[in-house]
Amino acid sequence: MDLPVMPPVKPMLAKSVARIPPGMQYEAKWDGFRAIVFRDGDEVELGSRTGKTLTRYFPELVAALRERVPERCVLDGEIVIAREGRLDFDALTERIHPADSRVRTLAERTPASFVVFDLLALADESLMDAPLSERRSLLVTALDGVTPPVHVAPATTDIEVAREWFEQYEGAGLDGVVAKPPTLRYRPDERAMFKIKHERTADVVVAGYRLHKSGPVVGSLLLGLYDGTGALQHVGVSAAFSMQRRRELVEELEPLRMDDVAGHPWAAWADEAAHESARLPGAPSRWSGKKDLSWVPLRPDRVAEVAYDHMENGRRFRHTARFRRWRPDRVPESCTYAQLEEPVRYDLAEIFGRAG
């Protein structure tokens, strides 16, 4: 491979802001695997955000990119999987599998798409120092008429349209809006763009915690919600605390600490089969490897308010929730899925039809 921009390249990143800023180019925030695509003739490489290769996990994308994008180019975008008109991140994570046979099976069963939103090189020219507005124009021209599973991400400079997208696109499983200065040069691994994500709050049961890697202080709180059958389901964690606050939490939660997990709603957490019918902490995963998944059980008596952006398949928090406050006025049994706001569904095909 001999391109003007060579792998590995770490993608340009975005920092969170509360509101959509004016005077920008706006795009949807896709919920998938960020990837830099390098194509030089028959050679295609998919580089991850960390610089490691994703190529072997998405053979169907490699073939599609070889057929659909310019012969020599470097593209920045997102690998996504769409099912039933919305993005499915769980299906995407399943694609990272060590067995080649499983990779091939999943490539047929849950094929991925690639959404392109930036152009880093074309033919013999690096575009890293070109302003975003120029890169966008060249991208739209270079991929004019491209067909699925490769898509050009819709973009607009109209802030009112961006606000509409922010409200509508969540229903298709997207994550918010990204705002990019039109004069921005490509700056790898720098938070030079802006992301605006949905934030909601929920009252949850704090039913346990994991210790911090540094010692006997709280690393993360384990959060639960009651489902329609009255079972407490593990829905995520809250983990962003100062070291002082981690120490304080150990003392605050000590009266709730259970010496034995027996009698706890998640008592079967160590039984792999139990995870098939319930959401429990410590689910076995190839992502966890040899990581210690043990946790300290607490009587599920304490309620906390947390902030979250959105739910994954309506079952768990997609990202780490942010602790807001204790809610002594709420009883744990009132912390159910019914309190959660459900976004209005929006067909992903409508979004792909707006590129330009």
From TrEMBL:
Gene3D superfamilies: DNA ligase/mRNA capping enzyme (3.30.470.30), Nucleic acid-binding proteins (2.40.50.140). Pfam families: DNA_ligase_A_C, DNA_ligase_A_M. It is an enzyme of class 6 (ligase). It comes from the Bacteria. It catalyses: ATP + (deoxyribonucleotide)n-3'-hydroxyl + 5'-phospho-(deoxyribonucleotide)m = (deoxyribonucleotide)n+m + AMP + diphosphate. Residues 105-227 form the ATP-dependent DNA ligase family profile domain. One of its GO terms (molecular function) is DNA ligase (ATP) activity. Its EC number is 6.5.1.1. Keywords: Ligase. CDD domains: Adenylation_DNA_ligase_LigC, OBF_DNA_ligase_LigC. Belongs to the ATP-dependent DNA ligase family. NCBIfam families: PRK08224.1. PANTHER family: DNA LIGASE 1, DNA LIGASE 1/3 FAMILY MEMBER. This is DNA ligase (ATP). It comes from Streptomyces broussonetiae.
